[in-house]
Each structure stands twice: as C-alpha cells, then as structure tokens.
Amino acid sequence: MPELPEVETVRRDLAAQLLNKKIKSIEVLHAGMIGSDAGQFSKSLGGASLIDISRRGKLLIFKASRPDLFLLAHLKMTGQLIYLSKDKVSIGGHSLSSHSFEKAVGGELPNKHTRIIINFNDSSRLFFNDLRKFGYMKLVSSSELDKIIARNYGPEPLEKTFVFKDFFQKLQARRITIKAALLDQKTVAGLGNIYVDEVLFASGVRPMRLASSVKKEEAVKIYKNIKKILALAIKNRGTTFSNYVDSSGKRGNFSQKLKVYGKANKPCPNCGLPIIKTKVAGRGTHYCPHCQS
DNA sequence: GTGTTTGTTATCAA
DNA sequence: CTTGATAACAAACA
C-alpha cells in the first residue's frame, strides 16, 4: 500500500533518473488505467519530456515539457512505477544488475500486471504495473490540477502548511473516529492504513476514539508523530507490506520498524500484551489495549 | 465458495 | 445544504 513515504521514495528516485529524457513512445496495455483515449494520451506525451516531478499526498505529478500539461499518477493499492535504464535491461533475463530487481518483482518486465509503458529515446523505460487496476495515469491542465488538489487534499504533513492549530480544530469538528479522520486526505494528506495505526500507537490513542474526544495534549502527540514517523519512513525508503517496491524494484526497509500494523496477537513492543486487530472505519486496525487509551 | 486485503469515490441516509 | 457511514471497485490469496 503506497502511502506518502513510499510515493515520496518513488518520486525522488524517478526525479534522479528520468527528468528531461525525451519520450519516444507510449504503450497503453490497459486502456482503463488512463482517463482519455489511448491514442490521444500517447499523442499528447509523445516527443515531450518530463521536466519535474512533484507530489501531493499520494499523488505523483509529472510536469511535461509542453505548455500546461501535467501527467498525474496514482498507485492506489497495488500500483508500481518501475524504471529500467538501458544498462539494467537484462538480456536473456540473467544480467547481474537486474538480479535484485527480478527477485523483488518476480520476473522480467513487462509482466502480466504491466498496464502502461513509457519508452524514452535512450531506450530506458518506465513501467506502470498494477495488479488490481485501481491506479491510474491522467493528463491534466494546470487549472484542472489546481482543482483536483483543492478539492481533495489538506496540508502536506512535512511542510509548514501543516499547522497544529488548524489540525486540532479539524479533529474537534469531526464526529467520526480518529482513525477515519486521519485517513481523510483533507485532514492531512498522505496517511494511509499502515501509518495511521503506527501514529496512533506512538501517540497512545485508540483508533476508535471519536476525533472530537481527542484532548489537546493527545493531538499534539499525534501531530508530532505524523511528522516524525513519516520522515523516518522516508529515510527508510518506505514500507513494503504487500507488493510495494520502489522504482528499482526494491522493497522498503520501514517494514522492519512497524510496531503494530500486521502484528495481530504479537506482543506489544512497549508492554508485551498481545496487539489487538479489529475493524475501524472499515479497515483492518491494530492497537495495544494497554498502551492506547 | 467465503472472507480478507485498502485508496478513493459513489451512493445513500440522516 | 452538510455530514457520515457504507458499498463498490478489482484481483489474489488463505
């Protein structure tokens, strides 16, 4: 499940690799993954290059070298963006440099989950794989992009726009669980199921508590832990739980640092009591009955 | 065949 | 009008 740290890792890696490379061709293997007609999509991007990559929450934003053209990419639950430069393309499937990649992805690309391929002039390729086809790529203008961001996204947790006072006010105004409030991208952008559970554990707050019942001191802890845990997860190149891999096909290291997510019935790292797994906001939810109140 | 996995949106109810 | 709860989406696995 790519959340902010995973998407940010992909963004940084891709920015270091493919910026300003001319797009030779585009292969749309599954038309449902793009908003527009495949021919139009290819025509709009073909011959252009991607000159900047930014991110809003879990949304990747590629700026194209054409006036007023942006390529949006959302990985949703099982999307992968994998970039192979020409020296990493394995010939016959046995080149040394592709070994770790193949181990992580499970074979050569494209595979049966490859939905879109962007071919660059220097023979490098960007593969958009998505087992469950929830993800998408979409071409938009800057005004469309602004609208999408304004409608769907609250502040970026690692930027100055994430202000405690506003955050606390939002929590107080909501009569939903604190978990649901943190999953809402308008409260703060980029948290998903894994990091919400981790943040609430670190903050000592039970996920099923009403958001409006969270005291100021608790909200301070949640606010600080959002920043701390996301930053640490980025440092560790994200969490691989199901099938997330970075743009080189490698797994994230933060998986080893998870304290409650996926730890049902395992001892709490603080007190040793078994971690409880239940359902909150329609999602699998993990917490310690002793350390979180 | 059943239940589970989750990011986001559509849909419905209050 | 707003707010919130839930189903739906799609594919794979236990």
**Rg (C-alpha, Å):** 20 Å
- First-residue to last-residue Cα separation: 27 Å
What is the β-strand count? 10
Strand order of the largest sheet: 1-6-7-5
Mean pLDDT: 90
Q: In terms of structural class, how would the helical and strand content be classed?
A: alpha+beta
Q: Main sheet, how many strands, which sense, barrel?
A: 4 strands, antiparallel
Count of helix runs? 8
Which residue ranges are poorly predicted, with pLDDT under 50 across at least 5 consecutive positions? 89-104
Strand content: 15-25%
- The helix content is 25-40%
The backbone outline, from C-alpha atoms, is globular
Order of helices and strands: HEHEEEEHEEEHHHHHEE
Could you describe the 3D structure shown?
The chain is an alpha+beta fold and 293 residues long. The chain is built from eight helices and ten strands. The chain has a four-stranded antiparallel β-sheet, covered by helices on one side. Strands 2-3-4-8 form a four-stranded antiparallel β-sheet, with helices on both faces. Strands 9-10 form a two-stranded antiparallel ribbon. β2 (50-56) and β3 form a beta hairpin. It is globular, with a radius of gyration of 20 Å. The structure holds a DNA duplex (14 and 14 nucleotides).
Topology record:
Layout (H helix, E strand, L loop, with lengths): L3 H14 L5 E6 L9 H8 L4 E7 L2 E6 L5 E5 L4 E6 L14 H7 L8 E7 L4 E6 L5 E5 L1 H11 L11 H10 L4 H6 L9 H11 L12 H20 L40 E5 L2 E5 L6
Antiparallel strand pairs: 1-6, 2-3, 3-4, 4-8, 5-7, 6-7, 9-10
Helix pairs in contact: 1-8, 5-8, 7-8
This protein binds a DNA duplex (14 and 14 nucleotides) through loops.
